[in-house]
Each structure stands twice: as structure tokens, then as C-alpha cells.
Amino acid sequence: MSIMTTDRPQLPPGLPTPDWCDEDYGVALYRGDCLEVMGRMPDNSVDCVLTDPPYGLNYGYEGYDDTRENLRKLINGLFSYRNMFVRMIILCGPTQIHEYPESDWVGAITWDTTGSLCRFGFSQWTPILIYGDDVKRGFKSINGVLKSDTFHIRGGSSVGFRRSKEESLHPCPKSKHIMDYISRRYTNQRESIIDPFMGSGTTGVAAVNLGRAFIGIELEPKYFDIAVRRIRQAIIDRQGGELFAKHEPPAEANLFDKTNPNNLRNRNGKNHHRTS
Ligand SMILES: C[S@@+](CC[C@H](N)C(=O)[O-])C[C@H]1O[C@@H](n2cnc3c(N)ncnc32)[C@H](O)[C@@H]1O
């Protein structure tokens, strides 16, 4: 579904000058340390943090040293800005849950397949740490997805989905489908999302597709450049959808709408004019 110009999200006011932005589509991207960038942002400025921080598992990132000690510093820093956000949704690994402050709820992404190897077999779930109030009270669905706290991935390769060439340039990108689902589930249209550990920008692609404003921060220039490319492409794709929507025939041209007086034509093709 395309999103009309009037439905486009707005960036929160008072943000520092970004390294890349598209104000029309509400996107601001920063290349640098998220703790430093967030230190220059106003309080209460963003609706939702949606991120998967480094895991502290000595992962082979380009520049960042993925030690447990460094993860603890990032978590402390991130939570010192807790007042800046209404909600925080953090995807982490099972062995890092206890490194984070106590959350209001824990959801899960589950896999049929072999997420990764752990000492008790194969890890088939990713915890979702949830802080703050939900977007909507009650049950049923929200933004087109079930109002649930779990998301199940069926079948596929080792992580349950295939990656595009562009996604594979980052060592541990999240799937677009996961970020799409999580964004729908935990944010409303035109709200703002921040991903302080943006990596290759998957959260940003989902945000653009769904009409949420997006602030992304990434330390490593190589990953930042991938994110810019992917998010710019998502904006181009969405613009295409908007142009197409503009050329849809106007409602009165719908010949099947018998309630529209313009459609009440006689056999000669002339309009019947209603007198009352
Ligand atoms: C698990 S990855 C995120 C992957 C991302 N979700 C994706 O789909 O591509 C974590 C990212 O955090 C980045 N990072 C580490 N420390 C950072 C910091 N202080 N500020 C910003 N980014 C940081 C790493 O370079 C890495 O790309």
C-alpha cells in the first residue's frame, strides 16, 4: 500500500545536524558513536527505540570490539537516556538478557530452524526486551499484525530467511521481515523510531516502508554507507508507490458505483440528471 504525502512522518524537532537526511520522508542518519549523538538530542524526543545492539560475543565487526565489557558500557550509556524515549524494544541474545535493566516484558522471536549453535543445542529464539507502555490496550490485531508478544519464523536456511547481496555485507543483519513485523507491532504510523546501533539500516528500511520517522546511528563508516544506500532505495521505492497512487483514476470514474450520479448514464452515453 502506498502512503500519501500527507501521511508522511515528521522528524522530531531539535535534532543535531545529521550526516545524511531526507526531511520529506522523515529520515536522519548519523555516522558516529550513538552515546555522543544521543547526548545532543532533546529529552522526550523519540517515540521508540528499536534496535539490536552488539551481543558482546566477540563478533567480527569491522571496527567495533565486541567484548562483554564494551557491551556493558553501551547498555549503561543507552539507559542513561531512558527519558528520551516513550518505548524501548531491544532484540538481544539469550545470554545477554541479564546484562540489561529489568524490562517491563519479554517477548520472543522463535525459529523452527537452527538459529545458532549453543552449548545446549541450537538456539531457536531471540528475546525481545520491552520497556514502557504498549501502543494500544486490549487484544486482537494492531497495524495489521496479531497483537502478540512472539513472532515465529518457519523453515528456511540456518536463520530461517535468505539475505540479499546488500544485506550480506554486514556480518549480522536482521531480516527485513522481522524488523517490519516488530515495527508494526510496537509503533504506530508517523511515530518516530531510533536505532542507535543501525548496522546496515534494516530498521530504517522497515520504518520508511511503514511511514515511521527514522533516526539511525552507526559507528562504522562502511556499515553506515550500506545503510544510506538501502534506506535511499527504500525511499525511491516508496516515492514510486506514491506516484502510482496519484495516477489512480478518481473515485467518480468508478462505473460500478451506482450511488454516484455521474455514473448514471443512458444508452446514448449521456448522463441522467437527477432533479431531486
Ligand atoms: C548487531 S549489529 C546491528 C545490525 C543491524 N540490525 C542490521 O540489520 O544491519 C550492531 C551494530 O552496532 C554498531 N555499534 C557498536 N557500537 C556502536 C556505537 N557506540 N554507536 C553506534 N553504533 C555502534 C556496530 O558497528 C554494529 O554494526
Question: How much helix is in the residues?
Answer: 10-25%
Number of helices: 5
CATH class: Alpha Beta
CATH architecture classification: 3-Layer(aba) Sandwich
What string, H for helix and E for strand, traces the elements in order? EEHEHEEEEEEEEHEHEH
What does this protein structure show overall?
This protein is α/β, with parallel strands linked by helices and 276 residues long. The chain has one domain (7-239): Vaccinia Virus protein VP39 (Rossmann fold), CATH 3.40.50. The chain has helices at 34-38, 68-79, 176-186, 202-210, 221-246; strands at residues 20-22, 27-31, 46-51, 85-91, 105-111, 116-118, 121-123, 125-131, 141-142, 145-146, 150-153, 192-195, 213-218. The strands form three sheets. The chain has a nine-stranded mixed β-sheet with strand order 1-2-13-12-3-4-8-5-11. Helix 2 links the parallel strand 3 (46-51) and strand 4 (85-91). The radius of gyration is 22 Å and the shape is globular. It starts with 19 loop residues before the first strand and ends in a 30-residue tail after the last helix. The chain binds S-adenosylmethionine. S-adenosylmethionine binds at residues 33-35, 52-54, 61, 64, 74, 170, 172-174, 196-197, 199-200, 202, 217-220, 223. S-adenosylmethionine (SAM) is lined by residues 33-35, 52-54, 61, 64, 74, 170, 172-174, 196-197, 199-200, 202, 217-220, 223.
